[in-house]
Amino acid sequence: MTSPEVRSRVSDAEWKQRVDLAACYRLVALFGWDDLIFTHISARIEGPEHHFLINPYGLTFDEVTASNLVKIDLDGKKVLESPYDVNPAGFTIHSAIHAAREDAKCVLHTHSVNGIAVSATKQGVLPISQQSTFVLASLGYHDYEGVALRDDEKPRLVKDLGTNQFLMLRNHGLLTVGTSIPEAFIAMYTFESVCMIQLRAQATGAELVHVDPRIVEGVKQVFAAVTRGMGAGLAWPALLRKLDRANPGYAV
Predict the structure, then answer these.
(1) 111 within a domain of the structure (yes/no)
(2) Which of 85, 174, 185, 190 could form a disulfide with 115 if both were Cys (CB 3.0 to 4.6 A apart)?
(3) 3-state class (DSSP) for residue 40
(4) In 3D, which of 118, 114, 164 has the Cα closest to residue 137?
(5) What is the pTM of this model?
């Protein structure tokens, strides 16, 4: 369907969600966190139907638009006709989290080089930067069980995420959840920065200075109240302006 056809068949709220999600896909590509056509960012559509938006399988992230996003149900089946296919297997992780976490309005999963590299280290995220304290305040780990295709992995995945905002998938990549698309994106920006800083610090071969555990614990205690939204409300409009300069056309 063309943009006018899709726009006329969805609510204003869904269209805004579509525009933000398309922008999120393109920002992930702009920052270099994409992996060809693989991984997903899913967003819940408000309403009782438990419908979600996800990328058209086969398009690169910088090709995603508001109108070519595919509307699916919790089983990954299309509920609005679309010329594009989806990858139901790739929705396994997302569907588990959306079903378990009402607050997970957006689930963002990446296979970034920095994220996978840190996920392959036994120690995982180290408390060596200010950014790391925010991630460590709400971080879970999930051991690698192969390509995430099996439904029986879902309960373990949900348990390992718990109430956290960040999840490191061992030997696999990074995942964030947010009460909005901007929040999930800013969380991933922070997560990715933490991994990049850690790898660069370790590459120096110098002894690393760890943040005082009391500071990390203090961040954990105030995380929900102080960092709610990760500054997304302020950063998101600026990111959209950046995207408009670099890769416009997502809002069609």
Answers:
(1) yes
(2) 174
(3) coil
(4) 164
(5) 0.94
Other CB atoms within a 10 A radius of the CB of residue 122 amount to 5
Q: What is the CA radius of gyration of the chain?
A: 18
List residues bridging with 140 in a β-sheet. Answer: 167
Q: Which two tokens stand for residue 241?
A: 């302006």
Report the distance separating Cα 89 and Cα 157, nearest Å: 15
Is 252 contained in some domain? no
Q: For residue range 126-156, what is the model confidence (pLDDT) as tens digits?
A: 999 999 999 999 999 999 998 877 788 999 9
User: DSSP characters for 64-109?
Assistant: --TTTSEEE-TTS-BSS--SS---GGGGHHHHHHHHH-TT-SEEEE
DSSP letter, residue 56: P
Residue 99's domain is classified under what CATH number? 3.40.225.10
Query: How many distinct structural domains can be found in the chain?
Result: 1
